[in-house]
Amino acid sequence: MNIDDILAEVGGDGTPSEAQDLRELTRLWVNERSAPEILPWPSTLMDRLLERIRQQIELVEEQVGNVDPKTNFRLVIIQTELERLKFLVRSFLRARIAKIDKYALYFLTDADQTSRLSPSEVQYASTHQSLLHSHYHSSFLSHFPPSLQRLDDTTGGISMIEQPDVDSAVFVRALRDIEEPVIIDGTDTAFEMKRGDIYVVRWSAIKELVFSGHAELV
User: Fold this and answer.
1) Integer Cα distance of 39 and 113 in angstroms
2) pTM of the complete model
3) For residues 133 and 111, what is the distance between their CA atoms, to the nearest angstrom?
4) Whole-angstrom distance, CA of residue 85 vs CA of residue 22
5) What is the rounded CA–CA span in Å between residue 97 and residue 33?
6) Crossing angle (nearest 10°) for helices 16-34 and 69-109
7) What is the C-alpha to C-alpha distance for residues 210 and 35, in angstroms, rounded to an integer?
8) How far apart are alpha carbons 56 and 71 in whole angstroms?
9) Which strand (E) or helix (H) includes residue 198?
10) Which DSSP state fits 95?
11) How many Cβ atoms from other residues are within 10 Å of residue 132's Cβ?
């Protein structure tokens, strides 16, 4: 049996959905790192990927110490793929946590934003905001009048809650022909996007295309 036979056997257990899941995770990872807002949590995809990671870890642990060269080489391939998958998952989660750390109060007070978080992320954001408020209160807020101690004050029409800049520029690529022209709010600019086109444009103008999978950030 040569190396091609071993590689074919290792890949034989895979299904098209596994390769598709990896491509989808890579696309979501790039989108999350590039978008100013937090993107919807891909619960179904992440459940599959985390279960796959668990199964591969169990397989590696079961086969450790096997002296069969063929099995050892197979484990090297599995471990390499496992590390790549773990790197993407960790980096994806870190990108989301960084946004939660920065805009926790905004995510918790806006229903649409809260719906984009996983249950664990909602719990993390709540704990983060509670600790931050306790720290601020013990450090200086307790010395202020009660009316000035709120962190979500909107007096005078000015909100104290920091929000992502949805008008920041992003690089976007169309994954298919977009039927409707893309319109930039507040301007008279409108343009068509064809498959493969890459533009630098406001996030607010194309975020729905990214959410729908018709475009991706680069």
Assistant:
1) 9
2) 0.82
3) 21
4) 8
5) 11
6) 40
7) 10
8) 14
9) strand 198-202
10) H
11) 14
Query: Tens digits of per-residue pLDDT, 56-74?
Result: 888 888 777 665 666 677 7
Q: Is the dihedral of CA 189, 181, 209, 215 positive or negative?
A: negative
Separation of alpha carbons 116 and 39, rounded Å = 6
In the block, which residue shows the tokens 């600790």?
A: 131
- Torsion over CA of 49, 54, 55 and 56, rounded to 10 degrees? 90
List the structure tokens of 54: 């668990």
Q: Please write the tens of the pLDDT for every residue from 163-180.
A: 999 999 999 999 999 989
The contacts of residue 20 (CB under 8 Å, 6+ apart) are: none
Report the 10 Å Cβ neighbour count for 75. 19
Nearest C-alpha neighbor of 209 from the set 169, 171, 182 = 182
Calculate mean pLDDT across residues 85-103: 96
**Token couple for 2:** 């040569």
- What's the residue count for the chain? 218
Structure tokens, 114 = 């809260």
Tell me how far apart the alpha carbons of residues 57 and 63 are, in angstroms, rounded to a whole number. Answer: 10
- The tokens describing 163, both together, are 């929000």
Tell me, what amino acid is at 89? V
CB 152, CB 160: distance < 8 Å = yes
Q: Which two tokens stand for residue 144?
A: 């202020």
